[in-house]
Amino acid sequence: MSYKQSYKLEQKWINESLDLFRTIREDKLSNLMELLEKIIGQIHEVKKTKKELVKSVLALGVDSDQLDNELLWSFAKTSEEEILSVVSYLQTHYFINEGKESPANLYVEQRGILENRLILKMTNILDDSVVQFRENYRNDAEELRKIFRAKKKIPKHLLEPLVQAFPCLIVGIRELGEFIPLEANLFDVVIIDEASQVSIAQAFPAIIRGKKTVVLGDTKQFANVKSHNASTKVNNVLFNRVRDAFKKDIVDRPESERESLEMKIENFNIKNSILDFMKNIPNYECSLKKHFRGYIELISFSNKNFYQDSLQVMKIRGVSLNDVLQFHVIQADPRKERLKNTNTDEIHYILDELNRLKQMNYQGTVGIITPFTNQQKLLTSRILASKDWEYYMEKFHLKIMTFDSCQGEERDIIYYSMVEKPGEDSLKYIFPVKLDKAAEEENGTLKAQRLNVGFSRAKESIRFILSKQPEEIQHETGRVLQYFKNMLQGPDEARLLEQTDGRSKMEPMVLQWIQQTKFYKQNKGHIEIIPQFDIGRYIKQLDPLAKIPAYRIDFLLIFRKPGDRARSAIIEYDGFEFHFKSSDSINEFTYTRYYVESDVERQKTIESYGYPFIRLNKFVIRDNPLQYLDRQFARTFKITETEDEDDLRKEVAETYEKIESKQIKKCGKCGQMKDLSEFYDPNLATMYGRNCKTCKGKDTVRSR
After folding, report:
1. Does pLDDT of 217 surpass 50?
2. Integer CA distances (angstroms), 639 to 511, 561, 634, in order
3. What is the pLDDT of residue 95?
4. Which helix (H) or strand (E) holds 559?
5. Which positions fall inside the DNA2/NAM7 helicase helicase domain (predicted)?
6. Are 551 and 535 in contact (CB under 8 A)?
7. Over the Cα atoms of the chain, what is R_g?
8. What does the pLDDT read at residue 27?
9. Which of 112, 421, 487, 551 sits CB 3.0–4.6 Å from 536 for a disulfide?
10. Which residues are CB-contacts of 180 (< 8 A; sequence separation ≥ 6)?
11. For the chain, what are the domain ranges?
């Protein structure tokens, strides 16, 4: 590739905002070792002709940095995973041979340069566009202000400078039609949030206006209520017209193709959300697994029953479990309420709670959720009649909701007024009788979604106001309440948090990661975690002659399975300030070489007493810390035969060393790497042939 071609390609990547190393996905190599041998051979050739090559390159107008880039083009047909293995392996080669600059450093450096260029370019464009709009379009800005106030549609000649100055416009799906002209490709990207609540009829006008569409939503939360409740009869009449028009358009297609297309037309039913529609035709799809709103205990029901324990909870609980989960069972008047599906005693109790929070000078937000609309209306009227209602609205941002209207809302404290009294069984009409058979019930999916959405709104605390014990409430509602109540009867894991090092920001996070792993959840009753364990003192008690300093580890995890001996593992998070040598070359490929010597020596000493280490740092946990820990636990406690990345890298490095020392070589016939003794042939001058004994034996049989 010439200098000009390389420069143009680089500019193209920058303009398209692409990252070179994120585009490498296809055409994986069939043999990693062949690639290694070729690259190593090229490196040796470059070293031999270094002076002549540099002269030639300079004569062509190519500087040394571009030469380094050219050496990396060999990776262009490999997968990203293979690149990481190869780069790490070559890093070892350069490190041993005291190379000045390695491919790993080039990888990180070039990627960083490209990212910084993109950020700088984006910042300059945004700043310049705002300044230009202010200086050159003052009259247009005034006209736009009048249009917004009058809620009129923006003319196209005013929309273009507006979008150039403010490239990100946030509008409601209904406001889009009021303000933005209906014209194709007005925007580069259209993003639709809460897509499960947007019908295809509402979304298509937005999609037409964009060149690309990004849809965000959760099929396990509410669909569009209005489209769901639309008249089935009217919908069928209108949708039949769509079917007929579609069939006329495809009448010239082959019969087999027509049948397939006629099935796809069902996706255009107005009762489908745009999320359901787009799931059939995505170019890219991913799940967002990090949960930031509430503590593990607050989201655990939804995580277990709706998301298969796939959510990674990021919020660390530093308060008592009794402050997070509360049950208030009151003695309600057994007489029938004047208004159906209401409970005035629960309302009085909630009013007292709001007054108590006011007296405490509580600074957080408060929400109230109830299953019944009548209870919501009565709660609202009683609170508005209170002398402190303005205080509640202003200080607590108080909102009274039903399970159907709370999606998208969140509050620090959520009170649940469940209404049902002894002798009543009204909650079965709101929630499923049994969650795992919800699909068999009438409106079962909607009932299940109420559980998922309603019981995941709290950020700090949920407080159930009940008129009977959770065990007395029937069906799935009772099981949910008992699920939360059972948490209060178990050990409070926040006590472990209190024992961590208060000076470390990462120890509480590591503890939470451990408690969220599949290994911990499956073996919770057989695991003991000891924070800040004095391992040095403990080993000296076992061996008074042990040469080990007084040393506390972050966590000692003890795994005692019934019928098996207790096994232990040490879990340490390595911060850069104390555990690594200072170097500009440290990155995800090289960090193992920059541990301070005292750390390595201490680890080897402790491991010699049978305590394996699991070391964490920002490189190994950057993608999925839970998955990484699960792999390490599986390997440490030999639960599965899973190998992690380090094992693969060690295997590749060992193979390379054997190739370099001529202990093994590749057979020219079968292509396998075999021990050198497999190539021994006393009849040859060099004593070793190109093909292994096995392949030679096959050739001998054929010749006979």
Report:
1. yes
2. 21, 11, 5
3. 56
4. strand 552-559
5. 184-222
6. yes
7. 33
8. 40
9. 551
10. 153, 154, 159, 171, 186, 209
11. 3-123, 323-490, 496-652, 662-703
Nearest Cα to 520, choosing from 555, 488, 546?
555
Contact present, 536 and 548 (Cβ < 8 Å): yes
Written as one letter, the residue type at 455 is F
Element housing 413 (H / E): strand 411-417
Report the b/e string of 146-158 with b at 16+ CB within 10 A.
eeeeeeeebeeee
- Segment among 50-59, 159-168, 319-328, 593-602 with least mean pLDDT: 50-59
Sheet holding 613-616, edge to edge: 527-534, 552-559, 567-573, 613-616
Q: What is the pLDDT of residue 85?
A: 64
Please give, one letter per residue, the 3-state secondary structure of 444-509: HHHHHHHHHHHCCCEEEEEEEEECCCHHHCCHHHHHHHHHHHHHHHCCCCHHHHHCCCCCCCHHHH
The C-alpha angle with vertex 517 and arms to 515 and 523, in degrees rounded to 5, equals 80
Query: Buried b / exposed e across 346-356, counting CB within 10 Å, b at 16+?
Result: bbebbbebbee
pLDDT in tens, 220-258: 888 766 666 666 777 788 888 888 888 888 888 888 788
Among candidate residues 357, 347, 346, the one with its CA nearest the CA of residue 388: 357
319: alpha, beta or left, given left = phi > 0 and alpha = psi -120 to 50? beta
**Cβ pair 299, 291 in contact under 8 A:** yes
Four-CA torsion 405, 407, 409, 410, nearest 10 degrees: 120
Residue 539's closest CA among 633, 597, 607? 607
- Choice between 428 and 503, residue whose per-residue pLDDT is larger: 428
pLDDT at 289: 86
Report the b/e string of 537-550 with b at 16+ CB within 10 A.
eebbeeeeeeebee
Q: State the amino acid at position 588 in one-letter form.
A: E
Structure token digits, residue 295? 């503590």
Structure tokens at 38: 């070729």
Contact assessment for residue 192 and residue 213, using Cβ atoms and an 8 Å cutoff: yes
Residue 98 falls in which region: left (phi positive, over 0), alpha (psi -120 to 50) or beta: left
The tokens describing 661, both together, are 């020392």
- The token duo for 265 is 């037309």
Please check whether residue 396 is in contact with residue 354, taking contact to mean a CB–CB distance below 8 angstroms. Answer: yes
CA atoms within 13 Å, Cβ hemisphere of 141: 12
Q: Are the CB atoms for 186 and 157 separated by under 8 Å?
A: no
- Mind spelling out the 3-state secondary structure of 568-615? EEEEEECCHHHHECCCCCCCCCCHHHHECHHHHHHHHHHHCCCCCEEE
Q: Supply φ then ψ for residue 211, to 5 degrees.
A: -80, -35
H or E element: which one contains 325?
strand 325-329
Cβ atoms of residues 187 and 209 within 8 Å:
yes
With contact defined as beta carbons under 8 Å apart, do 173 and 227 qualify?
no
Nearest-angstrom CA–CA distance, 573 and 553: 9
DSSP, collapsed to helix, strand or coil, labels residue 8 as helix
Pick the CATH number of 323-490 from 3.40.630.10, 3.90.420.10, 1.10.3720.10, 3.40.50.300: 3.40.50.300
Please check the confidence at residue 496 and state whether its pLDDT lies above 90.
Answer: no
CA–CA separation, 453 and 431 (whole Å): 12
Cα–Cα distance for residue pair 198/274, rounded to 1 Å: 6
> What pLDDT was estimated at residue 586?
79
List, for residues 3-46, the tens digit of each pLDDT value. Answer: 455 545 555 544 544 444 333 333 433 344 456 566 666 656 65
130 vs 124: CA distance, rounded Å: 10
